[in-house]
Amino acid sequence: MSMLRTTALLLTLAFPSLSALATEYPLPSPKSRLVGENLYYTVPEGKHTLEDIAAQFQLGLSNLLEANPGVDPFLPTPGSKLLIPQQLILPNAPREGIVINVAEMRLYYYPKGKKTVEVLPIGIGQIGKDTPENWVTSVQRKRANPTWTPTPRIRKEYAAKGEILPAVWPAGPDNPMGLYALYIGNLYAIHGTNASFGIGLRVSQGCVRLRHDDIEHLFKNVPVGTRVQFVNQPIKATEEPDGKRYLAVHQPLSRTVAEFESNEPVSISLPKDVAKFIAKADTDSSVIKKLLDERTGVPTVINQ
């Protein structure tokens, strides 16, 4: 399927609706948490990185890498098919304001008064500079053309690499915070970036990073005072009204540099509520083991 036909298919699906600003899904009933449909995309001829494709489909790099294990992130093979993971299980959190699931590196925005949810890919904090995981706060202020004031620790780290940072980085397209910022506390912000990569990766100093069009969209549409909740849910589960039980398993976040650099998979354990959910499903234990081992992030039916 060509790029044009794939895009056309995406736009004609009942959901999701993909634009240059966000992937928007109709909000399901309160008894459902499953949204969207997966797609398949054929890599075209020419030089296309996985980041190029991820940006085209409003995904982070990690989303595509999870769903397509073994693919070359720098030069995916022309003619090969990629799974575009547009089917999602909503996080187990109130459908209000902004919900950020750091494990899957996605931001969910529930616009007030609308029966939709907008999903945006994000970059999060490096190991040791982690983005919050279990925190409820709010958008306290917004600023276009933000400046960046590096902390003494950050300036020292950069100096050790031979790069001297200014006390205050002036506003503009070269600013690491990009052109828009939503401040959610004294230490953290949801902001843009001056880089063309890093969405779906652990690259920030702890803040939440978005592509330029995405942060501009949030800046224009998210009011000050909006609730913001951070969660860390690598395993999501839902029982749908038709009785089907779905499980989606993402790669959990590494806790140490050694763990991050190791070839061994990060250990993962089932939360008690998910374990009970699975126990009630009529499924083979090998199915659950396969999902826990592969960690594609793709919702999978686990009962018959």
What does this protein look like?
There is one protein chain. The chain is an alpha+beta fold and 304 residues long. The protein is 22% helix and 24% strand. The protein is built from 8 helices and 20 strands. The chain has helices at 3-12, 50-56, 61-67, 152-160, 212-221, 257-261, 272-279, 285-294, and strands at residues 17-18, 23-26, 34-35, 39-42, 81-84, 88-89, 97-101, 106-110, 116-121, 124-125, 135-138, 141-144, 180-183, 189-191, 202-204, 208-209, 227-231, 235-239, 245-249, 300-301. A hairpin with a 5-residue loop joins strand 8 and strand 9 (116-121). It is globular and about 60 Å long.
Characteristics of this structure?
about 300 residues, alpha+beta, 7-stranded mixed β-sheet, 4-stranded mixed β-sheet, 8 helices, 20 strands, about 25% strand, disordered N terminus
Secondary-structure-based class equals: alpha+beta
Strand segment count: 20
> How are strands sequenced across the largest beta sheet?
1-2-9-8-7-17-11
Overall pLDDT metric: 90
The fraction of residues assigned to DSSP E strands is: 15-25%
Over the alpha carbons, how many angstroms does the gyration radius reach?
Answer: 19 Å
Mind summarizing the main beta sheet? 7 strands, mixed
> Termini distance?
31 Å
- Report the uncertain regions: 1-15
* Helix fraction bin: 10-25%
What is the approximate shape? globular
**So how many helices?**
8
SSE run: HEEEEHHEEEEEEEEHEEEEHEEEHHHE
